[in-house]
């Protein structure tokens, strides 16, 4: 895709990370360029997902890079979460170097659209489920830190303040 670029990742406390993203109402060259940049930027070692606001764009879009599959979705909404939970350490490109135990649903299903306006369903278990929930949280202006158990969150915020 022309115009693809590896974009700088915004990090906490950048206010764009706490701002809910706007729905994409028109698929134009700006949105096509955004998707190209999301795909280019997520396609690096150690990156599982990337929301548009993490590169400074306040639109509902994210990309993923899970098990050698790279993709994107526009206007994603979580439409189903499994009853079973998964525990595991979670990290975030916008909160570099901090990994904390985060409980998520073991299965997630997201619906949205592609660049042609066609319906898209992205679903999965394990890491994919974690990624879908994590990226949708970003688009709602939330970070994984917000989901931590209180005692763990206190520890995480202390460590974060020491790093800033």
Describe this structure in words.
The structure is a single chain. This protein is α+β, with helices and mostly antiparallel strands and about 160 residues long. It has one domain (about 15-164): Peptide Deformylase (Alpha-Beta Complex), CATH 3.90.45.10. It is about 25% helix and about 30% strand. A five-stranded antiparallel sheet has the order 1-2-3-8-9. A hairpin with a 2-residue loop joins strand 5 (about 90) and strand 6 (about 95-100). About 30% of the residues are buried. The mean pLDDT is about 95. It comes from Xylanimonas cellulosilytica (strain DSM 15894 / JCM 12276 / CECT 5975 / KCTC 9989 / LMG 20990 / NBRC 107835 / XIL07). It is an enzyme of class 3 (hydrolase).
Number of strands: 9
How many domain units? Answer: 1
Q: Could you give the order of the helices and strands?
A: HEEEEEEEEEHH
Determine the CATH superfamily. Answer: Peptide deformylase
Which strand-content bin applies to the residues? 25-35%
Largest sheet data: 5 strands, antiparallel
Low-confidence stretches: none
Quickly give the structural class. alpha+beta
* Percent helix: 25-40%
| Mean of residue pLDDT values | 94
CATH architecture: Alpha-Beta Complex
Count helical runs: 3
**Computed Rg:** 15 Å
Give the overall form. Answer: globular
Indicate the CATH class. Alpha Beta
**Distance between the amino and carboxyl termini:** 36 Å
CATH topology: Peptide Deformylase
Order of strands side by side in the largest beta sheet? 1-2-3-8-9
């Amino acid at each position: 895709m022309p115009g693809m670029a590896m974009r700088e990742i915004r990090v906490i406390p950048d206010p764009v990370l706490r701002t809910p993203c706007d729905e994409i109402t028109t698929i134009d060259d700006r949105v096509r360029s955004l998707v190209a940049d999301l795909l280019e930027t997520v396609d690096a070692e150690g990156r599982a997902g990337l929301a548009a606001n993490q590169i400074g764009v306040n639109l509902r879009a994210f990309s993923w890079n899970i098990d050698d599959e790279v993709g994107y979705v526009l206007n994603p909404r979580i439409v189903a979460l499994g009853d079973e939970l998964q525990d595991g350490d979670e990290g975030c490109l916008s909160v570099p170097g901090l990994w904390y135990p985060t409980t998520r649903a073991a299965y997630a299903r997201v619906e949205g659209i592609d660049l042609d306006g066609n319906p898209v369903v992205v679903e999965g278990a394990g890491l994919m489920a974690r990624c879908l929930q994590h990226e949708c949280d970003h688009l709602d202006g939330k970070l994984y830190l917000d989901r931590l158990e209180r005692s763990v969150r206190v520890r995480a915020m202390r460590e974060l303040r020491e790093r800033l």
